[in-house]
């Protein structure tokens, strides 16, 4: 090797909820020989990168936190970005993760070495080898900006919501907001009072329900500190309510009619103009795209300095932005709230498996993994928030913790097997798991015909989990070795002589049902 490699048992990629959760779980399992490779200079993942005005979570605070690290001091029922990021810093310190962090280490390539049974990892600041890789880069890490003719010649400022330009003062500016997703509905009411003119390019209107947010009083927080059980009960109630909602999304979409009526009432309350209401009313079943929460989005759109264009941005001519329907506006800044690379994860281009192909090549026809964690052809590689682990109505922290259970048992199985060993997901097991998932997906609300970021280029939903979080936890509690091939390192002639052995030993031994 031309460069010096530092060897660790486990390399974790990313330091958001998934990466920090993995680090905490490793330490709780007694594993301290690991690093967390982070391309930025601080922890936080999406809650570090997304610092746009109004950024907050749409899952209640006491549910959007680790079960092993409850926070009795959440200031609001739906916490803002700054509080969630502070929580992740607190988790990092409380569980002793800082010595394992390697900031500024952008992963350039990961290659599986079949002979040595380990991963070779090249980063922007050094190289590592690892017995196991845990990829926790997350699906909301790489912003997606559409290719718009003329955008390169725009004389003003252009930035994505996840890369907010805090040095640019929007006061008195003419601003184009592209997109109407979860970020946009928070940005619009936050900047509307500041800007001279706000033009919102809406390709598809979202369904928006009121955001039942409030401050959590000092007495309430004190109760949670003095009696931790009250915080646990609160979390349990929030979880249980959302578990009961799942069947409407996954089995009986017609039950969502009442929720749709509530969303229409929310709109009618603030939007009195019939023409504007018509623009803002979706034509698809509520839940097909993510349901958004806001109590100030519609009031902001009704203000005189806001113009809603009911089509997407198709061209930029100098400082003029042009919509698909022909509408034009002169603007000083363009803000893209156009989401992320979710079904075409950029990290997949940097993972090279046992056969020399990248994960992106393996997933060219759509992402597939075993129990949302492991991929065929990529031994000892596991992803957190992998394919079909997303949720439409609850907290992703619940899914992350389930995957951490699976990771812990995966490492225990390697210990029990002993020696230089790896586990490779069997293609048959991966395909069987995904066939079951996709079959269940057919009757969900997410497959009722709308276009959403849940679907890949072929229209397949490779993003969401078509069941409850409790079911997913049961499905990922332990590793079934029958779903894996046990791969052992080739024995050398010297090792054979030392063991008094004759005859060849295969490099890979499938221990079915071990």
Automatic annotation (TrEMBL):
Region (Disordered): 495-514
Keyword Flavoprotein attributed: yes
Pfam families: FMO-like
UniProt entry keywords in alphabetical sequence: FAD, Flavoprotein, Monooxygenase, NADP, Oxidoreductase
InterPro entries the record matches: FAD-bind_Monooxygenase_sf (IPR051209), FAD/NAD-bd_sf (IPR036188), Flavin_mOase-like (IPR020946)
Sections of the chain in a coiled coil: none
Cofactor dependence: FAD
An example Gene Ontology molecular-function term: NADP binding
First and last residue of the signal peptide: none
Family: Belongs to the FAD-binding monooxygenase family.
Protein purpose: Catalyzes a Baeyer-Villiger oxidation reaction, i.e. the insertion of an oxygen atom into a carbon-carbon bond adjacent to a carbonyl, which converts ketones to esters or lactones using NADPH and/or NADH as an electron donor. Thus, can convert bicyclo[3.2.0]hept-2-en-6-one into the oxidative lactone products 2-oxabicyclo[3.3.0]oct-6-en-3-one and 3-oxabicyclo[3.3.0]oct-6-en-2-one. Is also able to catalyze the sulfoxidation of methyl phenyl sulfide (thioanisole).
UniProt name for this protein: Baeyer-Villiger monooxygenase
Protein source organism: Streptomyces tirandamycinicus
